[in-house]
Amino acid sequence: MLSSKRLILAHFWLAFAVFGIALLLGAWQMFVRSPLHTWISNPEWYYRSLTAHGTVMGYVFPTLVAMGFGYSISEAALRQPLVGRRWAWVGFWLIAVGAVTAMIPVSMGLASVLYTFYPPLIGNPFYYIGVVLVVVGSWIWVGLMSVNLYVWKRDHPGEPVPLAMFANVAGSYLWGWTAVGAALELLFQILPAALGFTSTIDAGLSRVFFSWTLHAIVYFWLMPTYIAYYTIFPRAIGGKLYSDPMARIAFILFLVVSMPIGIHHAFADPQVGAGFKFIHSAFTALVALPTLLTVFTICASAELAARLRGGRGPFGWVRALPWGNPIMLATALSFVMLGFGGAGGLINMSYQLDTTIHNTQWITGHFHLIFGGAIVIMYFAIAYDLWPHLTGRALESLGLIRLQLWLWFIGMMVTTFPWHYVGILGMPRRMAYFDYSHPGLAAEAFSVSMSAVGGFILVASGVLFLTVLIRGQWAPLTEPGEYRFSTAVHPPVSLPAALNGHALWVCLMIGLTVTNYGFPIMQLLVRPETSVPAVYVGSQQ
Amino acid sequence: MTAGHTHTSDDGADVAARAERRWTMLSVAIIVVLSGAAAFAGIHQATMPQARVETADPTTLHIQGEFVETNLGSAVEPDGSVTVRAIGQRYSFTPQCILVPADTPITLRATSSDVVHGLLIQGTNVNTMLIPGYVSVLTARFQKPGDHLMPCQEFCSIGHEGMWARVKVIDKAAFNDMASQQRRLSCVE
Ligand SMILES: [Cu+2]
Predict the structure, then answer these.
(1) Which chain A residues have a beta carbon less than 8 Å from that of B34?
(2) Helix (H, G, I), strand (E, B), or coil: what is residue A116?
(3) Measured on CA atoms in the order A478, A481, A483, A487, is the torsion positive or negative?
(4) Smallest CA–CA separation between A347 and chain B, in Å?
(5) What is the pLDDT of residues A398-439, one digit of tens each?
(6) CA contacts within 13 A on the Cβ side of B37
(7) Residues A179/A139, Cβ–Cβ less than 8 Å
């Protein structure tokens, strides 16, 4: 029962359009920094491109996917038309206008500060204003998800909240609170300097604020993917979800423990003491728990489906899975990338091993494998699954879809494995150019070329993806039936309040953030003479 | 959550719940072991992030305090260890080539005079951020003589890709010989 089809399609189309542009920029970056290309005349072009790629891929694209998918979940899982559709359009247009506002100064070279901002570097104020508009637009979605759940609960007292909506609202609360860190940095530190009200900034404090957002944002990107694992995958392969309460526990754990861990991004920073770094490291280890639980539940759900299809033996059931099904394929490939990426993540988060690879190309490899790989491939799967219900037309190009998913997987492997390797050799990231004739760097030339090849494969996959969707807009009309989510083997009849609502967990999330961030932030606020002069981009070269 | 089911499905639910519990316990054990290993290595100082927060005003670095230009480079301490002081600025390090002895405890003290930089010595675990306003402190020990590249690992605006320095590790005796004639050492003359 999807009644806001135009709204949802608008979110997905804008998301995938900006994704396509940012994908091209990413591939171009890998090409110009590889030995396949000689020196670019102006390295500043590289940093403009990097700022645009990161801003779009980090803020605009996943936010729009989460919102579009979130509206679909609200209507399909709750079986009620979206409450507040006008507000949803306001949020959509805020994001569209914000993205354009941010990208104009970036393309003019007035805000080459990358998407992580880097104060005391200060770019054109319109870049930051654009980012703020994107965030404000997404906060409207957070509010709407909460309101829609509230309306449903009022009409269905005591009934278990459908799992997809439970997870969706958890994801929206996670984002609402996570974005506060960067918002504090932008509104109280960067924008006053960019607008000329202040001329100094505490770079250390702003990095702590940003770390508040920077890690949990990854879990916000991840939420639609995990929702797809739990609520699309089992149904798509003709099975059932192994355990409904376990799924809820995984989403609650994400909500509570993914927030207060961002200082692990600042292990090598001088402005935070070792104690809080260790606390954040331990919490980061804890956030592996919901993923480990998910791996178990999803594999068990796959096994159930395979056995229903006649699969036998301890491993023989794997062959009985419907491997030709796009959702099956996407989920399996996503799990492989999640496995490699997660193993790398354990190294990044560990208090000591991090020093070997901090800020090297390894990190780029890690998060492209997790976000660009494991997460984005499920965004494709979500689009493929929803599209017939949004357009009323069948996606017929099954072979093309399979090829697209395989190309994305191969492209990600070819891109990120060499990055991990050169990262261990100590190749720094975010550089426009390397002098491969230097004997110390010559050994990295081949790996960097491989990554560029991977970039081209990813572009080919992206083009195929958009082709499939566009062709779907002209396919013959069908009646796709009601959109529904997986049911559990044992559907919950009644749930304890803790597994049926978010209030307790939101309190815990805020409480843990206050304990894990309050003291380091207070210390930095009261420490005198840590503000340094702002350095304006473009004013001096 | 098994209320209302038939007897047979209750059995299935029990098996499922047991399997889940076992997996959860294993997952928790993995996490506890990982965090424990990290704590152990930290307590034993095998490797440890910087413990204390120190500040330095980037606008006066060049006229006062420990980071004035004549004080940069490598210095031998009374206890035989070596302290290296360095500054990052767009788009170079001072000194551009750090000279250190092999097999000697080294303390690196560095800061930035303008924007955020980073410093990483290839082939080692030396890797730290340079944040203007704060002093980064790191200990290290180089096993044998040799040359290492030391790039800036954090984006510091255009020109970042040109910000490379070097570390030259030389024999301990040769270093001490040079140190007896000069107060501050670096491999650039
Ligand atoms: Cu630099």
Answers:
(1) 285, 346, 350
(2) coil
(3) negative
(4) 10
(5) 999 999 999 999 999 999 999 999 999 989 988 888 888 888
(6) 12
(7) yes
Centre of ligand 1 from the C-alpha of residue B62, in Å: 19
Burial of B183 (0-12, 13-18, 19+ CB in 10 A): exposed
* pLDDT of A462 over the 60 cut: yes
Mean pLDDT of A9-36: 94
Q: Please name the residues in contact with B17: beta carbons below 8 A apart, sequence gap of 6 or more.
A: none
Measured between CA atoms, the residue of chain B closest to residue A42 is B158
Report CA dihedral (A292, A293, A294, A296) to the nearest 10 degrees.
Answer: 90
The answer to whether residues A288 and B31 touch, using CB atoms and an 8 Å cutoff, is: yes
User: Per residue of chain B (189 residues), what is the pLDDT tens digit?
Assistant: 344 444 445 667 777 788 888 888 888 888 788 777 767 766 666 566 777 788 888 888 888 889 988 889 999 999 989 999 999 998 899 899 999 999 999 999 999 999 999 999 998 889 999 999 999 998 899 999 999 999 999 999 888 988 999 999 999 998 888 888 888 888 865
CA distance B164 to chain A (A): 10
CA dist A314 and A309 (Å) reads 15
Give the pair of three-digit tokens for residue A9.
């399609």
Measured from the Cβ of residue A313, the count of other Cβ atoms closer than 10 Å reads 9
Residue A1 has pLDDT above 80, yes or no: no
B28 to chain A nearest CA, in Å? 7
Q: What distance in Å separates residue A89's CA from the closest CA in chain B? A: 37
A21's CB contacts (< 8 A; 6+ apart) are: A56
User: Smallest Cα–Cα separation from B109: which of B130, B90, B125, B85?
Assistant: B85
Identity (one letter) of the amino acid at A456?
F
Query: How many residues does the structure list for chain A?
Result: 541
Residue A242: is it exposed, middle or buried by C-beta count within 10 angstroms (0-12/13-18/19+)? buried
How far lies B82's CA from each of A171, A477, B115, B148, B155, in Å? 51, 76, 27, 18, 29
Judging contacts by C-beta atoms under 8 Å, the chain B residues touching residue A274 are 42, 48-51
B50-72 as b/e: b if 16+ CB within 10 A: beebebbbbeebeeeeebeeeeb
Is-above-0.90 flag for pTM?
A: yes
Contacts of A434 in chain B (CB under 8 A): 161
Backbone angles phi, psi at A399, to 5 degrees: -60, -40
Whether chain B has a CB inside 8 Å of the CB on A511: the answer is no
| Residue A109, both tokens | 């070279």
Is B134 touching A (CB cutoff 8 A)? yes
Q: Which of B27, B52, B53, B141 to mutate to test the interface with A (most CBs of A within 10 A)?
A: B53
Do residue A271 and residue B27 have CB atoms under 8 angstroms apart?
no
CA angle, residues A383, A384, A386, in degrees to nearest 5: 65
* CB-CB under 8 Å, B131 with A531: no
Tokens of A131: 């980012």
* Secondary structure (DSSP) of A159-207: PPPPHHHHHHHHHHHHHHHHHHHHHHIIIIIIHHHHTTS-SEE-HHHHH
Specify the DSSP element, H or E, that contains A7.
Answer: helix A5-32
- Amino acid (1-letter code) at residue A39: W
Q: Which residue of B has its CA nearest to A288?
A: B31
Residues with Cβ within 8 Å of A202's Cβ and at least 6 positions away in sequence, in order, are A189, A524, A530, A531, A532, B133
DSSP summary character for residue A241: B
Number of C-beta neighbours around residue A369 at 10 A: 28
Pick the residue of A269, A304, A356 with the most B CBs within 10 A to test the interface with B by mutation: A269
3-state secondary structure B20-64: HHHHHHHHHHHHHHHHHHHHHHHHCCCCCCCCCCEECCCCCCCCC
- Return the CA Rg of chain A: 23
